[in-house]
Write a structure and sequence with these properties.
Helices cover 57% and strands 11% of the residues. The chain has ten helices and six strands.
Length: 496
């Protein structure tokens, strides 16, 4: 239903009363809400916590640039390179810019729109239509039909009056999506930085593994030469020689595998930071840093503000509530005003004369009385979509707590394993030192003294593996705790 006011439409007061009457009629006759649904509830605070038996020596949350604690300039440069130019980072920033544009687009829906209008219409008037008399050619009567060249020049304006907050709800929903995209970009930064650190320390761990394997290889090579000389003199069977050679070949195979692993890590790192074949700097070996892992005493709602992915999901949920508000507002009458001021004439020569002036003011009222269930279906879809997001968010929170708990527990176990492995190395080293002492006193040969080093090297490899896992799990814990991200406060969810 539309109420229009224009030239010849009657007195203004009578038109205003007509509009008021139409508005009252619309309020009593608009479509009814039948499928509002029930909002799901977010996860309870008691489920956002850790078990009492999970703890580390240190506690606290990661710093914003958490990787700086390792004091490694190579790592700093690689992460900065990734955050500035990695393709995934560029995509995330583009999504943020796109969301901001969407906000502005939705916001302009309730603003005054003004457009300049100019058209020329060459038309043939039908003698049997509504303008039939104009089809005659009677110049004395001002009729020069049936062909006319009509011209229109002026300004057209429109304004949607947001009586029930539909437009405001749509703007709020788009703002929620924009804020979610910002949080997602922080989540991408966290993903990038932790992945770069994982690959970098994977390379450093493999470098140290190659050093230990080379040391073991030197011992194996000497053993093969010694056994070969003894076989040549008939002092022992060839079996010992072949066993020594098999050990040497096994070590060489491990060295080749480790070198290939370094290349694989490097190529993965290059793709991650978006570097070209020559743009990734050489990575020189450095010692692995000591563990800096820390676990907060409690998580609770603090985890929601610390995890950018959870904050993004909360914004999406909040935006879904605003979409529900917009869907509800669609049940009520909408009101707009259109206007035109300019010139309109059937002859171009008369276009810019005072008599050709035209003014239109057209208030319009739209009443959704019968819609075939479209509005209820739209509201039901908005509600179900919101409930789906709430459940996805609840599961994401549970997964986040699980990640923290599992990573913290694994770190705790690795710490204990590393301490036990150090004691094991001390015991094995005692046997090595004993054989070395016998060799120094002439009670054992050099081959036995060198071969006694192999078990120690093997245990050192095991300790290196544990230290590499410790560092990897420490970085994973940093990621699980949000990597230093800190929102002002978790988005407050208000289901509607």
């Amino acid at each position: 239903m539309n109420a229009r006011i224009g030239p010849g439409a009657g007195p203004w007061r009578r038109s205003a009363l007509s509009v008021a009457w139409s508005l009252c009629f619309g309020l009593t006759g608009c479509a009814l809400i039948h499928q509002n649904g029930t909002p799901y509830t977010e996860i309870a605070p008691a489920q956002i916590d850790l078990a009492d038996d999970i703890h580390l020596a240190r506690d606290g949350w990661p710093a914003a640039r958490w990787w700086m604690q390792y004091h490694d300039t190579q790592l700093d440069a690689l992460i900065d390179q990734a955050l500035s130019g990695a393709p995934t980072m560029v995509i995330a920033r583009t999504r943020v810019a796109q969301a901001k544009s969407d906000v502005e687009l939705v916001r302009t829906g309730s603003s005054l729109q003004v457009a300049a209008i100019a058209l020329v219409d060459r038309e043939h008037v039908s003698a049997h239509g509504f303008l039939g008399p104009f089809a005659m050619n009677e110049p004395a009567l001002g009729l020069t039909g049936p062909w006319y060249t009509e011209g229109v020049v002026g300004l057209g304006a429109s304004l949607n009056v947001d009586l029930w907050g539909k437009q405001r709800a749509q703007v709020a929903a788009s703002l929620g999506v924009s804020n979610a995209r910002l949080a997602e970009s922080s989540a991408v930064e966290l993903e990038l930085s932790t992945d770069v650190a994982q690959l970098y320390y994977g390379i450093q761990t493999t470098y140290q593994l190659i050093d230990l394997l080379n040391e073991s290889h030197e011992v194996a090579v000497f053993g093969v030469k010694a056994h070969d000389a003894r076989v040549a003199r008939g002092l022992e069977s060839r079996t010992r020689l072949e066993e020594a050679r098999a050990q040497q070949l096994g070590i060489e195979r491990q060295i080749v595998s480790a070198q290939d692993q370094v290349r694989q890590f490097r190529e993965s790192l290059r793709a991650l930071v978006g570097a070209g074949p020559e743009d990734l700097p050489a990575i020189r070996p450095v010692a692995l840093p000591r563990s800096q892992a820390a676990l907060p005493a409690t998580l609770s709602y603090e985890l929601l503000a610390r995890r950018p992915d959870l904050q993004a999901m909360r914004w999406y949920v909040q935006a879904s509530f605003d979409r529900i508000d917009a869907a509800k507002a669609a049940f009520y009458p909408s009101f707009d005003i259109k206007a035109f001021f300019g010139f309109n004439a059937l002859h171009l020569a008369d276009l810019f004369t005072h008599a050709s002036q035209q003014i239109n003011l057209i208030p319009g009222l739209y009443l959704p009385i019968f819609d075939g269930g479209r509005l209820n279906a739209n509201l039901s879809g908005a509600r179900e979509g919101s409930n789906l997001l709430i459940e996805q968010y609840n599961q994401a929170v549970l997964n986040a707590v699980r990640d923290v708990a599992q990573t913290g527990s694994r770190l705790q176990a690795l710490d204990e394993e590393a301490e036990l492995q150090k004691k094991r190395i001390e015991s094995v080293a005692f046997a090595r030192d004993s054989v070395e002492a016998h060799y120094q006193r002439g009670l054992a040969n050099r081959v036995a003294a060198l071969e006694a080093r192999q078990p120690v090297i093997a245990e050192q490899v095991a300790l290196l593996t544990l230290n590499g896992q410790l560092l990897s799990q420490e970085i994973a814990l940093t990621k699980a705790l949000g990597g230093g991200y800190r929102a002002d406060a978790p988005v407050e969810l208000n289901p509607r």
